[in-house]
Write a structure and sequence with these properties.
Strand order of the largest sheet: 8-7-11-9-10
Largest sheet: 5 strands, mixed
CATH topology of the largest domain: Rossmann fold
Structural class: alpha/beta
CATH class of the largest domain: Alpha Beta
Number of strands: 11
Order of helices and strands: HHHHEHHEHEHEHHEEEEHEEHHEHHHH
Number of helices: 17
CATH superfamily of the largest domain: NADH-ubiquinone oxidoreductase 51kDa subunit
Number of domains: 3
Radius of gyration: 22 Å
Helix content: 40-55%
């Protein structure tokens, strides 16, 4: 994990030799937050997470403490905790680095979360392609069991907590929490209608919290230093630090932990080594993963990396997956490739998504091949409008938003393809 001096707040141990082991974790403060949490009531733990203002780091951005508080207190049914380690959003590569480099931070965060919501069993749903990460994670869980940190009597505190790794099969839609739950239950990974929400009807029809890897690994620091400390990082409504996966045409691609609210230009120039060929060669940036609308170079001059600023700019923070494109990139070709991805990943449950993603990919392919018409450009917008907001999960929106954003920002390139039958660049 890359970063400048002074920016390693949550992930300060990940660079250490053998950082994945229990010995190194404990030598550098591991499981101290767990001990502090056990000295608090579950309600106090939830209150600190609420005070921190941390929002889900998987892309949805829902306040984590508020989600925990939805778990019914007096319900006799078992409570479950599920960690979403599927990480299927193109451009995102942060969670897998945490799993490889500091799995005990995740285990500790899950113990604290389970204590807060009274869960006795948890699962880490990990993307099937993450073979090495799953091996390292299982090794850390085995160490934790051997040390009495998991199982019948966690750290001698009388808490029963079992944790297991479940490997998925690489379906993008299983990154959606109810699709993940369906898959975890052994069924086809298709999202559920909501409501009811997982907090009431989740895994095995029981109250369930689903949180992302980055969210859960932030919990120990919040408990150790307090929710007020964490909320002092970042900016209003976007508190704390965030891992940004910067890829594409930068000189130093990598994962960077910075405070939310950092200017995008600072993130790219001071951390990611600058745009290939210089800032003047920047064409645009996809700021939150492939499902978020692209920003133009002029927008990148001033926009800051937080939920509100990116929404105001017409895009989203998403999972913090920053994809940088320079002037050598054909926007039509790039978006056509994304359209093929979303067509492939649609689970087929919703008609607007099943049919719409196919039509989007087909029309984008026609435009890319230089066989489109001006009407096709408006047809893409029309199809997108018939998908967005009309599906069970957000995959349909994820397929439509990049196209709508690209046409809005770079319509002249789409029109060039129609008029000249080829890319404007290259």
């Amino acid at each position: 994990m890359s970063g400048q001096s002074g920016t390693k707040v949550v992930y300060k141990n990940i660079h250490l030799e053998n950082s994945h082991t229990l010995a190194v974790s404990k030598a550098n403060g591991g499981y101290q937050a767990m001990e502090k949490a056990f000295g608090m009531t579950p309600a106090q733990v939830i209150d600190q997470v609420k005070k921190s203002g941390i929002r889900g780091r998987g892309g949805a951005g829902f306040p984590a403490g508020l989600k925990w508080s939805f778990i019914p207190k007096d319900d006799p049914r078992p409570k479950y905790l599920v960690c979403n380690a599927d990480e299927g959003e193109p451009g995102t590569c942060k969670d897998r680095e945490i799993l490889r480099g500091d799995p005990h931070l995740l285990i500790e965060g899950m113990i604290i979360t389970a204590y807060a919501i009274n869960a006795q069993r948890a699962y880490i749903y990990i993307r099937g392609e993450f073979v090495r990460e799953a091996e390292v994670l299982q090794g850390a869980i085995d160490e934790a069991y051997a040390a009495g940190l998991l199982g019948e009597n966690v750290a001698g505190r009388g808490m029963h907590f079992d944790l297991a790794v479940h490997r998925g099969a690489g379906a993008y839609v299983c990154g959606e929490e109810t699709g993940l739950i369906e898959s975890l239950e052994g069924k086809k990974g298709q999202p559920r209608l909501k409501p009811p929400f997982p907090a009431n009807i989740g895994l095995y029809d029981c109250p369930t919290v689903v949180n992302n890897v980055e969210t859960l690994t932030s919990v120990p620091d919040i408990i150790t230093k307090g929710g007020d400390w964490y909320s002092g990082l970042g900016v209003a409504n976007s508190t704390g630090t965030k891992l940004f996966s910067v890829s594409g045409h930068v000189n130093k691609p990598g994962n960077y932990e910075v405070e939310l609210g950092i200017p995008l230009k600072t993130l790219l120039n001071d951390y990611a080594g600058g745009v290939r060929g210089g800032w003047e060669n920047l064409k645009g940036v996809i700021p939150g993963g492939s499902s978020t609308p692209i920003l133009t170079a002029s927008q990148c001059e001033t926009v800051t990396m937080d939920y509100d600023a990116l929404a105001k700019a017409g895009s989203m923070l998403g999972a913090g997956s920053v994809i940088v494109v320079d002037k050598s990139v054909c926007i039509v070709r790039a978006i056509a490739r994304l359209s093929r991805f979303y067509r492939h990943e649609s689970c087929g449950q919703c008609t607007p998504c099943r049919e719409g993603t196919g039509w989007l990919a087909q029309v984008m392919g026609r435009l890319e091949a230089g066989k489109g018409t001006m009407k096709d450009i408006d047809m893409l917008l029309d199809i997108s409008g018939n998908i967005q907001g009309k599906t069970i999960c957000a995959l349909g929106d994820a397929a439509a938003m990049p196209i709508v954003g690209a046409i809005k920002a770079f319509r002249e390139e789409f029109e060039y393809h129609v008029e000249h039958g080829r890319c404007m660049v290259g």
